[in-house]
Design brief:
4-stranded antiparallel sheet, Rossmann fold, 330 residues
């Protein structure tokens, strides 16, 4: 990506220690998210996407998680060197998260306005700002209007059960925008929503990126959402990035055997190809296979796959980590 990244992750590695056993969950993960760009991190469930997001946000439970290597830079500053209250205050205006599943992410016993006003109350306290309840509610109405909610004051007085799934998703986006972050991390946006509502949510996110100059990192396994919205794609398998490139390139020329297998899992409306699954399952993170972690499931695996492959170029800004790249893309 040509634009200077707002977020830059380099060689991030994370271990989990549970019951005296160490699991090597992330290994040497690197990615960039420039301002005004929509970047997607894709992969099947359990491949490390959410752990990567939590490490970036600084919300990994430590213990059992431990960052054992790498760096996370936001606007040139190493987040792993920021501690305590300084981190809490600084993060409030740096990045925010749109949580997964609007059906369960909101507290059912408080109104939307109460939940959003409470977020602002504690954010103001961390940032040393003085704003009364009236001022905080005005900000709540303003942000609800920004996410295209009709009659923000009525919505603020509503309980989550009184809203549709799409409206709840917009509320989650509004909550993330309350503190005016520069980076949004969206975890599985559109989960449990119909396709029409998904399209509306994606358009809203695109508009926010363009109008407010935000950087957006979308974490998903939904390739349809990625094709519709992303500028750049990182494909993750078993805690490692195996392919990266512009979205148009990835969809035109998926190159890593795992990326191709993911694409084969998507049913085709034309019926030209047979729907396929991926044989096997993710490896045991406590005892991962040597070399390429996808090798036990890969139809192209040979003896050399017992050594970790380097990333090799496929095209402009497009690369994949595979020893048999020529055979994979043939």
């Amino acid at each position: 990506m040509s634009a200077e990244p707002l977020l830059s992750v380099r060689s991030l590695s994370v271990d989990f220690s549970t019951y005296g056993r160490v699991s090597h969950v992330l290994r040497d993960v690197s990615l960039d998210v420039p301002a005004r760009r929509h970047v997607a991190l894709v992969g099947e469930s359990g491949c490390g996407k959410s752990v990567t997001m939590k490490a970036i946000m600084g919300i990994l439970a430590q213990p059992p998680a431990r960052i054992v290597g790498g760096e996370i830079r936001f606007d040139g500053r190493d987040l792993l060197q920021v501690r305590g209250g300084e981190w809490d205050a600084w993060r409030g205006t740096a990045m925010s998260m749109v949580f997964q599943d609007p059906m369960t992410s909101l507290n059912p016993v408080f109104t939307i306005g109460d939940q959003m006003e409470t977020i602002l109350k504690y954010a103001d306290r961390r940032l040393g700002r003085r704003r009364d309840r009236r001022g905080r509610l005005d900000r709540v109405y303003e942000v609800l209007a920004q996410v295209r909610m009709p009659d923000p004051e009525r919505i603020a007085k509503s309980y989550p059960i009184m809203l549709s799934g799409g409206m709840r998703q917009r509320v989650l986006i509004a909550m993330a925008l309350l503190t005016e972050p520069r980076l949004l991390i969206a975890d599985e946006p559109g989960t449990a929503l119909d396709v029409t509502t998904q399209a509306q949510i994606l358009k809203l996110l695109r508009d926010l990126v363009e109008e407010r100059g935000l950087a957006l990192l979308m974490i998903t396994h939904n390739l349809g959402l990625v094709r519709e919205a992303a500028d750049f794609v990182y494909v993750m398998y078993a805690g490692a990035v195996v392919e990266r490139g512009p979205a148009v390139e990835i969809f035109a020329r998926p190159s890593h055997p795992y990326t191709r297998a993911l694409f084969d899992c998507v049913p085709k409306l034309s019926g030209e190809t047979t729907f396929k699954g991926i044989d096997g399952s993710l490896p045991d993170y406590g005892a991962p296979p040597p070399g390429c972690r996808f090798a036990p499931r890969c139809p192209l695996a040979v003896a050399m796959c017992n050594r970790s492959p380097d990333e090799r170029p496929v095209g402009p800004n497009h690369s994949a980590a595979c020893w048999r790249l020529e055979e994979a893309v043939a």
